[in-house]
């Protein structure tokens, strides 16, 4: 995204004009100083000790592959949830189950968190996310703030345009940023227009098993798909996604993907697509059901939109969708109702790749073009029917009325906001009150840490007529999108309940044992303040002896059923580490390929005698 900064040349005149204007309207640090926070702002963000924040903010960690959890309005970071990347602090990616989930990948690129919904509102149960880096999708359980499932999505590359869920979490759609040949087989780039495809995957979530599944896929034209949103209420069966590079350029996209005056919004009816699959109107591609719109008509339409749009957002009433043109300084409001009418009347202006194109004039409601506002990217909503759009280039938030097009207020932010997030601001019932601007640059807002500066989040009070920035905090890379949910909608568990059906669990020290099956050694142990017990009958119950080459499984149960008493388990010099939360059973498995004596210890400071919570792994050499 940083490439939009006005060093690029040779683009369309409008963009050059835009880039020049950037210098004029970008707030300098002096203006910012005049905006600096006051005592009354500080009071608004101050949450006294003993009190809790009103909202949870789930902030994407971008290419850290993680999710960061903050409290709003205090803007205190409460938790890091590892999703697509290993995390030594929690042993995520080290224990057997999470290692298997990560599938050997050591990073991910998480852009858009999506909380599960009921009737278009967050229900606080799960959070979905996709990985642009390695084409995966994940689900996080919000009762334990842990990742439960990760699925690899074949035939696709970089599901950036995701995750977004339909209003009752029926589907989670994953359109891709990169076009590739189906199955990612080798095809020369000269064959791009015929052999490459953008693919949208429809995923379902099985809540009782906490598993993601791929229901079907759609082979879209070889364009880049940027962002998407699901319809609500009267548009609840529909969804929209933006595209760019409909020029089908294969090199120097910076210039070549910005040639055409118009790209398209893809509008589709997911119920019709599901019916097509039911009717067998698909082809099997690498084990997936793939709909080819050029062969099977229906369900998908194109709406022309100002060049290279970035975000598209459905209004809370479900009546409109708003596209933001990162290169055309304009928000375009489209009407679902008009689109449905045009589809019914077959009011088309030709087709591309077999997909009918609706006429711009038949679907557009209005164009909104605030003076000197440049680089509109993403829009959020409040409880009063107002929209808030981030302006990447002119570094501001614009508040406007999407029903009239009237611009109501503008506030500078520091600097270059990507998304913003309002309290439940993308649901059917936005809360108003707070908006957080997720800024790509902080410049000199904080103590210097060298050439690379942190990103920032700015908390904006949107309860009044005028927006007011009331707090600025540094943010971990990289806040793309976030969702803010009322804290009382999240119901966490205090401890993991006993699970007698789990064959790996041991709840009494007298049940601990070490079982050998050929080369496999299974340790059924407990952790309790402040000792490990692996075999209560052994002379030293807190040590484990195996033979070099054994495949060792440590099944460890934390039998401290007290909130907040987490134990860690690490084996010195074996690069192994996991955690067991209160009541939890977790397994670590490894090949004991190095002979020798290796201390094992608890990594979480769990009691006054935590330092005593140690033992030995003895690996007897072969022969
Ligand atoms: S993107 Cu980063 S600012 Cu991935 Cu939603 Cu627009
Ligand atoms: Cu258990 Cu420290």
From TrEMBL:
Pfam families: Cupredoxin_1, nos_propeller. Residues 518-623 form the Cytochrome oxidase subunit II copper A binding domain. Its EC number is 1.7.2.4. Residues 1-23 form the signal peptide. InterPro entries: CcO_II-like_C, Cupredoxin, EfeO_Cupredoxin, N2O_reductase_N, N2OR_C, Nitrous_oxide_Rdtase_Sec-dep, Nos_propeller, NosZ/Cyto_c_oxidase_sub2. GO terms for molecular function: nitrous-oxide reductase activity. Keywords: Copper, Metal-binding, Oxidoreductase, Periplasm, Signal. It is found in: Periplasm. It comes from the Bacteria. The keyword Metal-binding applies. This is Sec-dependent nitrous-oxide reductase. The lineage of its organism: Bacteria, Bacillati, Bacillota, Bacilli, Bacillales.
């Amino acid at each position: 995204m940083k490439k939009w900064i006005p060093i690029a040349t040779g683009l369309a005149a409008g963009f050059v004009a835009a880039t020049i204007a950037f210098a004029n309207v970008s707030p300098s640090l002096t203006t910012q100083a005049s905006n600096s926070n006051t005592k009354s702002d500080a009071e608004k963000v101050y949450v006294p000790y003993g009190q809790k924040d009103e909202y949870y903010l789930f902030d994407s960690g971008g290419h850290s592959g993680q999710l960061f959890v903050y409290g709003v309005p205090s803007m205190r970071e409460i938790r890091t949830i590892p999703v697509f990347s290993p995390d030594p602090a929690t042993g995520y990616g080290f224990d057997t189950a999470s290692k298997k989930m990560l599938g050997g990948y050591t990073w991910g690129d998480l852009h858009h968190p999506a909380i599960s919904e009921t009737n278009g509102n967050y229900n606080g149960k799960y959070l979905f996310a996709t990985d642009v880096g390695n084409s995966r999708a994940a689900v996080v359980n919000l009762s334990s703030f842990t990742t439960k499932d990760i699925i690899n999505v074949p035939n696709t590359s970089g599901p950036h345009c995701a995750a977004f869920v339909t209003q009752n979490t029926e589907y989670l759609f994953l359109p891709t940023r990169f076009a590739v040949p189906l199955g990612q087989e080798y095809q020369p780039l000269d064959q791009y227009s015929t052999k490459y495809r953008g693919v949208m995957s429809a995923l379902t979530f099985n809540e009782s098993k906490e598993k993601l599944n791929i229901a079907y896929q759609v082979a879209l034209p070889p364009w880049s798909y940027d962002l998407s949103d699901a319809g609500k209420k009267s548009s609840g069966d529909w969804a929209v996604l933006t595209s760019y590079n409909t020029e089908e350029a294969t090199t120097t996209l910076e210039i070549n993907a910005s040639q055409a005056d118009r790209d398209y919004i893809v509008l589709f009816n997911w119920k019709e697509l599901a019916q097509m699959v039911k009717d067998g109107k698909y082809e099997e591609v690498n084990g997936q059901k793939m709909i080819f719109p050029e062969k099977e008509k229906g369900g998908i339409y194109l709406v022309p939109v100002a060049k290279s749009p970035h975000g598209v957002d459905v209004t809370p009433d479900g009546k409109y969708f708003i596209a933001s043109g990162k290169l055309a300084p304009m928000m375009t409001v489209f009407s679902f109702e008009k689109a449905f009418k045009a589809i019914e009347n077959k009011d088309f202006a030709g087709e591309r790749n077999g997909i009918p194109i609706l006429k711009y004039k038949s679907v557009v409601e209005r164009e909104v073009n605030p003076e000197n506002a440049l680089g509109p990217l993403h829009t959020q909503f409040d409880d009063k029917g107002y929209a808030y759009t981030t302006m990447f280039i002119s570094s501001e938030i614009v508040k406007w009325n999407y029903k009239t097009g009237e611009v109501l207020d503008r506030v500078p932010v520091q600097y270059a906001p990507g998304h913003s997030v309002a309290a439940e601001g993308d649901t059917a019932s936005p809360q108003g009150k707070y908006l957080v601007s997720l800024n790509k640059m902080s410049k000199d807002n904080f103590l210097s840490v060298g050439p690379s500066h942190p990103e920032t989040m700015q908390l904006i009070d949107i309860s009044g007529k005028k927006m007011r920035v009331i707090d600025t905090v540094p943010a971990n890379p990289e806040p793309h999108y976030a969702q803010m949910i009322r804290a009382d909608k999240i119901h966490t568990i205090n401890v993991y309940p006993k699970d007698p059906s789990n064959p790996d669990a041991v709840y009494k020290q007298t049940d601990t044992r070490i079982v050998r099956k050929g080369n496999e050694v299974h340790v059924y142990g407990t952790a309790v303040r402040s000792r490990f017990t692996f075999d209560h009958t052994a002379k030293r119950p807190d040590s484990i002896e195996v033979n070099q080459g054994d495949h060792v499984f440590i099944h460890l149960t934390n039998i401290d059923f007290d909130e907040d008493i987490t134990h860690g388990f690490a084996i010195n010099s074996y690069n192994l580490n996991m955690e067991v939360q209160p009541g939890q059973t977790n397994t670590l498995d490894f090949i004991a390929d190095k002979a020798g004596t290796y201390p094992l210890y608890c990594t979480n400071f769990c009691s006054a005698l935590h330092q005593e919570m140690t033992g030995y792994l003895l690996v007897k050499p072969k022969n």
